[in-house]
Design goal:
S-adenosyl-L-methionine-dependent methyltransferases, Rossmann fold, binds S-adenosylmethionine, alpha/beta
Length: 269
């Protein structure tokens, strides 16, 4: 039985997610669209959320299955999908499921897990279970693209991150509400490699009243060779490691760059 400690259901985030500029502007969408097109077969997106990446891949012609555990995020995705043309809808299959243990009646050419859902898995047994479930669903020679944030030691030690920061452009929600999002890292648990993250939404209602909504959750951080060992020990061969979505090799970037670890892996055997 896997622990439930790290599971975060995104019920607070779901309503706000598509309005957050930092998510909307993430430079990863075209990268995943290109990868899905190159896969030459069906694609599984693990932790698909509201379809930020999944829908553009489907619009570009890929057959997409999206798996997610959050009712809230999937509700948003279903509503968006209903507005898509029939041919796009026909290419999308949405499944509610836990990435740590799922069983689908299909095998895929490519599995992706974009924008760090893997960091919700706090323990090694959960991480291994997820990689095993994904591997089982890949066709022979199938590929996996997995991204995590590259932990920056200076940032991890920076106590200023306990203060709320990151005020972004306000966005509007139905009902005349205006939202401002901030974030902070309440604590870093160095021994467990976990950060307690808080996303803080300041909502101003149409009558002027204000609400402060805190979405607090733990996130695991992974070091490069730890992630490499995990992938290799679960039957994946690493074909490339990028530091961004322009396919810049991580090794070509400064050691302390604020970047991603984008693992391009292939099912072994
Ligand atoms: C940061 S969002 C990324 C969503 C989407 N891939 C994107 O790029 O916008 C992380 C997603 O992972 C999902 N998630 C977290 N834990 C999960 C689990 N155990 N099984 C399935 N999905 C999970 C969340 O519900 C959420 O939708």
């Amino acid at each position: 039985m896997l622990p439930n400690e790290g599971l975060h259901d995104y019920s607070v985030a779901a309503e706000f997610y598509d309005g957050v500029k930092a998510y909307e502007e993430r430079p990863d969408v075209q990268f995943f669209v290109d990868a899905a097109a190159a896969a030459g077969g069906p694609v599984l997106e693990v932790g698909c959320g509201t379809g930020r990446v999944l829908l553009p891949c489907a619009r570009a012609g890929a057959r997409m299955t999206g798996l997610d555990l959050s009712d809230g995020m999937l509700k948003v995705l279903h509503a968006k999908l209903e507005k898509e043309p029939a041919e796009v809808r026909a290419r999308v299959n949405i499944v509610k499921g836990d990435m740590r243990a799922f069983e689908l009646n299909e095998r895929f050419s490519l599995a992706t897990i974009p924008f760090r859902p893997f960091q919700h898995l706090l323990t090694v047994p959960e991480q291994r279970a997820c990689l095993q479930s994904i591997r089982k669903h890949l066709l022979p020679g199938g590929r996996l693209i997995l991204d995590v944030y590259d932990p920056n030691l200076k940032l991890l030690l920076d106590e200023r991150r306990k203060q709320e920061s990151g005020v972004e452009a306000c966005f509007d929600l139905p009902g005349g509400r205006k939202v401002e999002r901030r974030f902070r890292v309440a604590a870093v648990h160095f021994c467990r490699q976990v950060q307690d993250v808080e996303l803080i939404y300041y909502v101003t209602h149409s009558d002027g009243t204000q609400e402060r909504i805190v979405d607090a959750f733990p996130m695991r951080y992974f070091f490069r060779y730890e992630m490499q060992n995990l992938l290799e020990s679960e039957g994946f061969v690493i074909e490339a490691l990028y530091g961004d979505y322009k396919r810049t090799p991580r090794d070509a970037m400064p050691g302390d760059a604020l970047c991603e670890l984008v693992f391009m892996a292939k099912k072994e055997g």
